[in-house]
Amino acid sequence: MKFFPYLIGLLIVLLSSSLKLDGQISRSIKKEVPPSEVLNPMYLITYDHGGIVPWGVDHFKTYLHTAVDWLDRYPNFKIGLDNEAYAYDYMNRYDTLLLEEVRGYLKKYKGRFGIGSSTYGQPLSQFISGESNIRQIGYAIETEESLFQYSPTVYLMSEHAMHSQIPQILKGFGFSGAIMRTHFMMYGYNPTFNSAIGWWIGMDGSRISTIPTYKGEGNGFGWVTEDNYILTRYPGPECNEPLEAFRKKFSHINPLLATRADDSGLRQEGLVKEYENKPGYKWILADEIFPNFPAPHDEFLTLPNDFHARMPWGYCGNEIWNRSRKAEVNVLTAERLAAMESLAGGENHEDKIHESWENLLIAQHHDIQICGLVNESRKYLPASINLSDGIINASMKYVSSKMEGGDLAQITVFNPLSWTRKEYVETTINVPNNVRFEIKKGNQLIPYEILSSVHNAGKDSTKTKLLIPVEIPALTFYSFSIVRSDQQQVTSESIRFDKKNLQVTTPFWIINLKKEGGILSLVSRSTGTQLFMTEKGRSAYFAGVINGQPIESVGSWDLDSILITNNQLILHEDGTIGAIPYRLEMKLTGFSPRIDFAAGFQFNYEKIGRLSNNKNESASAFLHEKKLRFKIFPATGIGTTGIRDLPFAIAETEEKYIDGNYWSALADGHTGMAFFNKGNMGSVREPDGGFSIPLAYSMYYCWNTVILKGGFSYEFSLYPFEGNWKEADIHKKALEYNFPFISLLSEKGNGSLANQFQPFRISSSDVILSALYTKNGIPFVRFYESGGLKGVMNLNCNIGSCKYTEVDFRGNEIGKKNQNLVFNPWQIKTLKLNIYDKEQSH
Prior knowledge:
The protein is of the alpha+beta class and 842 residues long.
């Protein structure tokens, strides 16, 4: 963990007071450990956790120089750098002298000084998307190869960067092994094994050599591993336990490895001096582990629930995570559009996409997110978002210019996902006064609704807002012509609102609202099943501990601001929770069972969450059931389980806190309720049967207290469903919520692409697109199996002749051309595409 310099002392105090280790380390009495004959040396590894974020260049230089001094004083000593790989890019741009200094030390102390940066931005990897997990490692490798002609071979992390798909990802990048240890476990920890070395087996069956966390070495929130503690604090007032004690405790492990990956300011020269010439102890670098260890035989099969992680959701008003999600979605969308533009003969925008990714990846740094470094996030995330937005706009304009339009306007719409989907697209056009129009795709009439019409002052035109139902295949552009006509193809009514009885009727639900705010009940129209626990009085509202008092929201539905058409209803609720005013928007459409919410709060330094008098409070931030949250009461019964999506995985859990990247849910096999989120990734099962999504926390917090002031907004969605959750297609629906259609209004194009541009035909029920991008002008596409089943995908090209080859994450070919695309459960596959025109294909 990297913190502000003045918090170093705080970190030591907190860890020393809260550390929990099997066989507690004595802080006061140095035990005499009898010498023992050793066949193999005990290996020692130490890596400095400290880069540019948030410490800065001067801090990096200081501890780099002390490390070099130790290398000079102790010839047997070895040390590596465990900082974000972004630090090296930073040096290359802003401090080339420092970069040359590092390069010089790598040459001077070759084999004794090393690079251990495995990711670009040191994320808590369970809370970034699967694709971000891949880019974090890929960009780190690219940076280190470019600047040092070196590629990391061992995955090593100070803080929690583990999940059950890490073996597959590491294998795809060519790593030789991993250290499955979380050295500081404030935000996550991994399973332990009673073995020196083994095969770490992931969900898909991928295996990679690993040194595990030994049973008894320590695992639990707020802990550090026992060896990490000794290597950072012995000899000293906090720890008088020598490495001999660690060796005795784990004498059944052979060979034995003690590792440290911790803050650069937390290392002890006294320990290095004591063990400099002591027989049976040997310093090594990470790259030396597996050549010195026997081949693995034991198998460590890890499943999603074996990795425990947490976040202080709502901290800083959840601003950083919400913006991170927006940036993540934008760059994934931008590179898909840029790849499509290049296939249509335009630019690939690779340099700007690369820059956008870099900004996002460093903003995913754990210290930015969990130490509330808002100024850092406001530097990197808007930069990423703006770059991606520029690419999205440029690519849409390019493709639109080649498609068909009408005499009044052209609307071009792109589906960025890998399956056919239907949504409503909103757009605003200027129409000459007294002119009727119709919307067409080729000769097909497209129904639409007029949401609003406002005369343009001083002009002979009307600004008209439209709602258009659109169904588009995977990765496809459709263009729609707006033309003058005496006819209008209107949509049929699918939504009704009974204002008197506060009842909403959609094709899916009958929803009764509570006069005092919130939702009273939700009933399935097809089965009559009640999906909320109505005996609670109301089933959806805001709750929280505000200034020490548990409070529920009180409000009313604003019946004067209703926006309703045949297929869309927008309602607003105004109210307060304690002294905090809020405005809630609820939006329903006729094509989806999803219920979308947008909430805005005005905070004024209220204390939100469990009260504490401890300014170094480290527990309240993780009690989500005390925070300001949106709370519902699903009508689930016996057998209710939690479900959530993780990087390239979906899993059930019995845990109270159900944190999922894009969604989390409760289900009992008959009915269920999912939260879709746009950055608020936490959810909590409450003792009274409630299910909540936390929004805001504003109380003491050990690293950097942030008390909220001003306006904060949140977006989330409810997705009720019936039947088994595995058949509800929750993951795809959550992705649709995060990746809407991209649309552009323009003048009509030249028509060279007609009204449909669909480079690929994709058919699969279980395989999902992770990324489509170009590298050096060559298109690559990545898919993953998301349901734990065998998957088969058909991929065909509509432009010229397409040949594809499976490659690893570094682009090396590992399969035959046009090999059948069969996916094992949870498998990720990347394809390199070679597209030829018809003459080249012959």
